[in-house]
Write a structure and sequence with these properties.
Layout: H1 16-24, H2 28-36, E1 41-54, E2 57-70, E3 74-79, H3 85-92, E4 100-105, E5 108-109, H4 115-125, E6 126-129, H5 141-151, H6 157-167, H7 183-195, E7 201-205, H8 213-230, E8 233-237, H9 241-246, E9 249-254, E10 257-258
Parallel strand pairs: 3-8, 3-9, 6-7, 7-8
Antiparallel strand pairs: 1-2, 1-4, 4-5, 9-10
Helix pairs in contact: 5-6, 5-7, 6-7
The protein binds adenosine-5'-triphosphate and magnesium ion (MG).
The site of adenosine-5'-triphosphate (ATP) has 13 residues, from strand 1, strand 2 and helix 3.
Length: about 260
């Protein structure tokens, strides 16, 4: 368990670089204190494993995964279909629990939180774009994007959601229900919903997978703009080489493990 002070790590994300600069000019004792408060590391996987049962018996789909992500980084997770990328992303975002190891997200050990605690942390700190969108069918595009703002108690939810949808080029589709949107449009609503709360960490599973080159490029620009301007940490699972190449770092998954390098 980390100290409660680490809870503010997410809030300090945008100031990550400034904090890094400040470290150099501080005494060793201060440096130690800052390092102990874990301010710069926004996400850490420690010896993470996930085992599921299958008709063939127990199956390890994520094995011994350890890495750290600093605030403001952009990281691509790549690898063959079935390598465990989506499973890993769900573990990192606290949507699924590991069979072994642990995840520290914004300074919090996810294993130490109950379901409500994890939900609260996700609502405050995390945006997630699923491989299969997960839009609420009974809500319009606008209402889907308003949801996380309303959960966060924001009074300007409608205006904020509208602006986010305009950002992804869907200003003229706000009243459409998911079934009245194309696959790529649903994906853009999911992306607007994920970034509308300005999360500390944005997880996206194949964010450009269903989009044409031009729209995919626009979405990528949007994600990297968020990364640059708001300091949002990005973790992107992608088969898109151009998108992976734009990330600061690439992690390669092979049969549940991170490839060395
Ligand atoms: N609940 C489960 N029970 C049994 N097997 C599972 C379960 N969830 C995932 N798997 C298996 O674990 C492996 C990893 O799945 P995962 O969805 O993480 O792959 P992925 O790398 O995201 O692949 P893709 O690129 O196709 O999306 C797959 O072989 C899948 O069949
Ligand atoms: Mg996947």
């Amino acid at each position: 368990m980390l100290s409660p002070t680490t809870k503010i790590a997410g809030a300090g994300v945008a100031a990550g670089d400034a904090a890094a600069g400040a470290i150099d000019s501080n005494s060793p004792t201060d440096r130690e204190a800052i390092s102990l408060s874990n301010k710069e590391t926004v996400l850490e996987a420690q010896d993470l494993g996930k085992e599921v049962s299958s008709p063939e018996g127990p199956l390890a789909i994520v094995r011994e995964v350890s890495f750290q992500v600093r605030a403001g980084e952009s990281v691509a997770i790549v690898g063959a279909s079935g390598a465990g990328k989506s499973t890993l992303l769900a573990l990192l975002a606290g949507l699924d629990l590991p069979s072994s190891g642990r995840v520290l997200l914004a300074g919090q050990d996810l294993n130490s939180l109950d379901e409500d605690g994890r939900a609260r942390l996700r609502a405050e700190r995390v945006g997630f774009v699923f491989q299969s969108f997960h839009l609420v069918p009974a809500l319009t595009a606008l209402e889907n994007v308003m949801l996380p703002l309303e959960l966060a108690g924001r009074r300007d939810a409608r205006a904020g959601a509208r602006e986010a949808l305009e950002h992804v080029g869907l200003g003229s589709r706000v009243g459409h229900y998911p079934r009245q949107l194309s696959g790529g449009e649903q994906q853009r609503v999911a992306i607007a919903r994920a970034f509308v709360v300005r999360p500390a960490v944005l997880f996206a599973d194949e964010p450009t997978g269903n989009l044409d080159t031009v729209t995919g490029g626009r979405i990528a620009d949007l994600l990297f703009d968020l990364n640059a301007r708001s300091g949002t940490t990005l973790l992107l699972v992608t088969h898109d080489r151009d998108l992976a190449a734009r990330c600061g770092r690439m992690l390669v998954m092979e049969a549940g493990r991170l490839a060395p390098g």
